Amino acid sequence: MAQAPFTNDIKTLRFLAGEMTQGDLGDKVGVTRQTIAAIEQGKYSPSLEVAFRIAHVFGKPLEEVFRWQAD
Predict the structure, then answer these.
(1) What sign does the CA torsion over 48, 18, 64, 9 have?
(2) Cα separation values, 55 from 8, 38, 48, 62, Å
(3) Which domains does the chain possess?
């Protein structure tokens, strides 16, 4: 599978949020731990709703969590 055309700071934000686990974040946004892991690694592009939910958990605007890499 090709690398997603974006990067994210989810792992760093989880660490700064008291070392939140992938499972904890998944529970808060309604997805599995495996989904969070795949998003962090750039192997899966989240839906817009999930992306906004992740940003909301950390109290950040979407563009501070995800960055699009244009060609």
Answers:
(1) negative
(2) 10, 16, 11, 5
(3) 6-60 (1.10.260.40)
The tokens for 4 are 């997603």
* Cβ-contact 65, 8 below 8 angstroms: yes
pLDDT at 70: 74
Residues of the chain with pLDDT under 70: 1-4, 71
- In the chain, the amino acid numbered 13 is L
Q: Look at residue 4 in the predicted model and tell me its pLDDT.
A: 59
Would the pTM of this model clear 0.85, i.e. be above it? yes
Q: Which two tokens stand for residue 48?
A: 């817009």
Element (H, E) at 66: strand 66-68
